Amino acid sequence: MSEQRASTVSDPATRRLDRNALAERVAADIPNGAYVNLGIGAPTLVADHLPPGSEVILHTENGMLGMGPAPGEGQIDPDLINAGKQAVTELPGAAYFHHADSFAMMRGGHLDLCILGAFQVSEAGDLANWSTGAPDAIPAVGGAMDLAIGAKDVYVMTDLLTKTGESKLVASCTYPLTGVGCVTRVYTDRAVFDVVGGRFRVRELFGSTTLDELRSLTGLELEMIDPA
Q1: Pick from 28, 14, 49, 44: nearest CA to 161
Q2: How far from chain centre, in Å, is Cα 215?
Q3: Which residues lie closer than 8 Å to 178 by C-beta, 6 or more apart?
Q4: Per-residue pLDDT of the chain (228 residues; tens, 9 = 90+)
Q5: Catalytic residue among 61, 73, 123, 223
Q6: What is the DSSP letter of 192?
Q7: Is 103 strand, coil or helix?
Q8: Does the annotation count 73 as an active-site position?
Q9: Number of Cβ within a 10 Å radius of residue 152
Q10: At 19, which helix (H) or strand (E)?
């Protein structure tokens, strides 16, 4: 069976990780030396949980390599922001470049990993993260499509369920797609899933979450990854 992480559960009543605990878990899997883009929203928290001295190089699509964690109080530089317009810091050796050059990096396969949020992820690894089709939805995919098809690996960081209780892991996406067959791993507040052979396989459970519970919540045929 996969490792069961009780010590990191931040809400024992619901057996879920909060977003900071989940960001810490994601950060632990990023290899040193990787070039990584953090998508808008919850994935930006990963920058705050990379260990000191980490050689992970963070990229922002608005034109920066070498992004650091969020600034402390009184340390905000209004000229340093990420793609979500959040204040960030720079690390020694940081570089700045034109927006078009940044997209060339994304589209040219120069990023090892991107970490994105999602509305839905299908068993085939399809990603829908830019629109639900609602009347007030933002009518543009932005850079998410470029990241989804350009990065060597795509990880998703999200809650397992929507606010109304539907699973974000689905047999097939019903929302407009961002990328086809692009997602390799999904980190949720209840478990970590790999996309393997057109199915989700459970890599790790959090707290007292069980495999049967995940099957009930998602409606999918889930199995644990064999540790061997």
Answers
A1: 14
A2: 22
A3: 116, 127, 128, 129, 130, 141, 144, 145, 148
A4: 344 443 345 555 556 899 999 999 999 999 999 999 999 999 999 999 998 889 999 999 999 999 999 999 889 999 999 988 999 999 999 999 999 999 999 999 999 999 999 999 999 999 999 988 888 776 677 789 999 999 999 999 999 999 999 999 999 999 999 999 999 999 999 999 999 999 999 999 998 899 999 999 999 999 999 765
A5: 61
A6: E
A7: helix
A8: no
A9: 13
A10: helix 19-28
pTM: 0.91
Q: Which residue has the tokens 């099957």?
A: 215
Long-range contacts of 158-163 (CB under 8 A, 24+ apart): 158/42, 158/117, 158/118, 158/121, 158/186, 158/187, 158/188, 159/16, 159/188, 159/189, 160/188, 160/189, 160/190, 160/191, 160/214, 160/217, 160/218, 161/217
Residue bearing tokens 């929302």: 175
Pair type for strands 35-38 and 113-116:
parallel
